[in-house]
Amino acid sequence: MSTTAAPVPHPSLPDGEVEPLDPFDDAQIAEFHAVYEAADRYGRRFACPFSLHELAITQRTTSVGEERLAFLVRVDGAIAGVAGVEVPLLDNTDQLFVDIQVAPQHRRRGLGTLLAQHAAVLARERGRAVWNGWVAGREVDGPETPTPGEAFAASLGLRLGRVDVQRRLPLPVPSARLEELRCTAARQHEGYSFDTWVDHCPDEHLAAYCRLKSLMNSEAPVGELEVEDEVWDETRLRESERELGASGRIRYVCVALAPDGSMVGHNELVVPAEDPGIYQWDTLVLPAHRGHRLGLALKVANVAVVQDRHPDRTSVRTFNAVSNTAMIAVNEVLGFVPVEYQGEWQGPVPV
User: Fold this and answer.
1) Both ends of the chain: CA-CA distance in Å?
2) Domain 168-342, classified CATH 3.40.50.12780, yes or no
3) What is the C-alpha to C-alpha distance for residues 340 and 316, in angstroms, rounded to an integer?
4) Is 0.85 topped by the overall pTM?
5) Tens digits of per-residue pLDDT, 6-34?
6) H helices within the chain, ranges in order?
7) Does residue 208 contact residue 253 with C-beta atoms inside 8 Å?
8) What does the longest C-alpha to C-alpha distance in the chain come to?
9) Strand 263-271 relative to strand 277-285: parallel, antiparallel, unpaired?
10) Where in the chain is the domain with CATH 3.40.630.30?
11) Which CATH architecture has domain 18-156?
């Protein structure tokens, strides 16, 4: 959902008709992506949209975990608004996730509402009672007023369930600083060890890694959102690995192992092919093993490897719930700087 300033008014345009995206039509998906990217970046310095290739792979790949749908609306024959929908299939089966973007020059004409109404019909057809949307908010130092995207979400009956902050770590982090942090953390986790891999999870770690990924919703702060743990198994994980590879993304994983050999924490860094940044995805340490600076150790180890292998990258981007004070403290020690708010909005699908 777009969150940028209101466009300059001009005469109203006729209502369009919603149609599905043909993900195998190269020209159509390129036009779809152009609208999506322009809307996502409009008025935002810290947007990080999918590349055209990444979007195409996502739409052309089936998933055991979710049904993926996309549709669009035209004005005068050109795509003016787009929407993507994800329908969970293994967990959270009462919910649906929607992302609506309208080209800046076509806003405030009801096209976003038209797309939302279509998404609501899809939700009801699939028996979903709750819908969710990620909405980028103001910059950290920006005016404390609702953005148009936030106002749009509220108009659909959604409420703000969790506030995240996007933080960025400038790269490279000096090697001396990483070594200092590694030594500081190591003094507090004697007996623990670490293992790493790139892209393909080793078979011996598969079950434990899936367990950690399944616990993210219950072990990380979710605010006022109503969500279940996700279901991760070998089929879903191997599928996600193949999709990441097809999209040109490389996933670096570092895991923490307790003295008994059990996996108790993990960190993921993802390097896209067409983006100067790096994305920090999951970071989790199980409650019984917190207080040993394992989170810091995992992040330091992974950053050291990734920035060495990708010296052209300029930053690491991460999103943390504002209530996740422990993880925020770790990120700030490492050098992450807050830049932009983002909210997850949730509400009942209108009847």
Assistant:
1) 21
2) no
3) 14
4) yes
5) 333 333 334 568 999 999 999 999 999 99
6) 26-41, 52-60, 111-125, 148-155, 175-186, 206-214, 216-219, 234-247, 294-309, 325-334
7) no
8) 69
9) antiparallel
10) 18-156, 168-342
11) 3-Layer(aba) Sandwich (3.40)
